[in-house]
Write the structure tokens for this entry.
Amino acid sequence: MAADLPTPNANASPPPAASAACGTCVFNHAAQLRALGVDVSGHDHVVALAGNPNTGKSTVFNALTGLRQHVGNWPGKTVTGAEGGFGYRRRRYKLVDLPGTYSLLSDSQDEDVARDFLLFGQPDVTVVVVDATRLQRNLNLVLQILQITGRVVVALNLIDEAHRHGLSLDQRHLARELGVPVVPMAARSRRGLDALLEAIEQVALGTVATRARRVHHGDARTERAVRELAAQLLREYPGLANTRWIALRLLEGDPGIERAVTDGTLDRLSSPTPHAVSSETPGT
Amino acid sequence: MRNVHKGSPAGASTATTLDRLRRGQIATVTAVDIHGPQRRRLMDLGVLPGSRIHIDRVSPLGDPTAYLVRGSVIALRREQARGIHITVEQE
Amino acid sequence: MTGFSILDRAARLRDGLPEGFRDEVVESLYSDAARITETSVTERDHGTRPPLDRLLDRALTHRVWGFATMGLLFFAVFWFTISGAAGPSGLLSSVLVDHGHSRLHAVAAPLPLPDWVSGLLLDGVYLSTAWVVAVMLPPMAIFFPLFTLLEDFGYLPRVAFNLDRLFAKAGAHGKQSLSMMMGYGCNAAGVTATRIIDSRRERLIAIITNNFSVCNGRWPTLILMGTIFIGALAPPALAGVIAAASVVTVAFLGVLVTLLVSWALSKTVLRGHSSTYSLELPPYRPPKVWRTLYTSLIDRTLKVLRRAVVMAAPAGAVVWLISNVTVAEASIAAHLVGVLDPLGWVLGLNGIILLAYLVAIPANEIIIPTILMLTTTLGPNLFDAQQGVMLELGTAQTHTVLTQAGGWTLLTAVNLMLFSLLHNPCSTTVLTIWNETKSPKWTTVATLLPIALGFAVTALTATVARLAGWA
């Protein structure tokens, strides 16, 4: 909950001043971006920013919000989450920078923070920043996130570095495999920002249908157990999203999820919450 | 790098653990005999069965060793490398 | 409660599952990721790194050159900081302290204010704050951007890679070297940075030893002592280099103490296996120089400075009060110094230094001004200073004040440098340690262990020096 200075024109059309100042920009879409700094008041959508450490996640955060969170070139740098705001076209977004993690399964502190936000904060869109030069490792996290939420945009960052390293990536194939939009970008030089904003808007408004890839488990007994438990979850918590993932975590005995079951957190999530135009800050 | 990509004849490869890998050799991970969160962490970093791996650098003090695996350079201490089973492709 | 029936069901289903199914689940995700990657990425030259990265690594992690560059780089950072900050610091202090202070007094003089109000506000609060700004802003504005450039470049993980074996032998986590380096900026930041260490045992070791990284609040002390007592021993042409070398030596001692204390802790109260760890060496990235300068200036420098000012203002008030409030014919400060003097003598320091460290618990930055002020107030008045006024003196005058009015020797200076390395963390750091550990026990250990070490080491050097007839 950062400074809640009421800004005039909060929900009005984009101020022309911003585009005028940026009239000579090479990227005209991005000219519709309004960096709002720490001002997250009256946002229409919550966007979570996830990704492995050292993928340029903070660079994306800074590019969108106009804030200057420090970016360090070593793993585990961002240990606390930051919040910022940006406006694009007619809508205002609150961007939540999650700690950089390699996965959501290793039970470390930052992974718990990231996972809890994705699960209980129910962001409208989750942008996963991916290092194009280390796709496999980064996809581990993408796939794990896709088990939790399908409202994902993959920002395929450091694409310039990948080209320099002699890698070429078929992003359309990747998007098909994952079932969510994939946006190639080079955040350090602000390339691809326009396409990212576009994709965020589309997923937020639901104008593009995502069909997140769900991983089915090879072992038949595991698969059956997951399905059985997921069905019971859905009976007891109607409307609960990502029951398969919760079922799997419960089978694994994840203490955080077990707590969510007993303390009523799941109950709250099961009541059909309006996704668009949230008035409250989720997750707090 | 040398001209050692693919094409090593079957049977010419030897099974060992990662700490025995020598510079210049290329190996494939066969199993990760480490348990708990560290197993996950290694897999997060790309060390999992099927990954090709070779030594990139050894720390000036002799340990740890940095390996190149799936495009990233990962430093592992020797006792940890001991738990990673590999087959070495012939040079 | 429906919740419990779900948990029961989960437990029953779990029993029917093969052992290790958890790993299988993860591995099925990972093999999926591997398959998708293989079908979407084409590599031109399989499994190689850019030649420049390899070349840089070959140099920066070389048996000889790796350590040589490490030493040189850190020396260069300190030297730039010390020599580059001297001019701007002098300028700021002449503006803020010399002119600003007398101007404020001139403005305040006609106002119907009691003496103690203008004394407390102008001589106490304003002067100490101005001093902290003048002394801290320039070095921080140089140090942080330089350090950030190294950080952005990707150099820090290489340092961790080079030093890891030492940390492994000390029973510590390899990433402790990263939090240690953050500590050179600010210990509170260093303590927070230990979150990258998963094992609680190793994280506690990293937290307790972080205080042995000389934070920038302590440099003014080290730099001043190095300049006026140690650099002065060398011929003028070499004085700057010798002074920088003495500061680097103390910082290096800090690394040694870190390793020793880590080792001792891991052999005693924090026993356990050193957990396996994996450190990634990220690709080198050319730092964006201008953006880095701007960001680190705004972000880090001003943040740390703001904290210093917030802490310095009340401390300045305290110093003014204890030297001006008189009880039984002497100021409170004089009484306190009298009580602390015997202990100070044993440690090769003096009562004034110890009192300064008590006052400066909230902010180490004001150690030197407090010492100077107390020395001039309580000793013979050489420069016609007012009671409890923090003086800004040139280095030559400072030397005169300390040796003539304070009776300082080389031993006092050396031990002050050692004590500056080995004493309790500042209150912000203690608070951060509490927040990170939530443990009264470990917060106490982290607070008291360094000061106990400081007492032991300085008492030892003082005794040796006296027995050898050096002091």
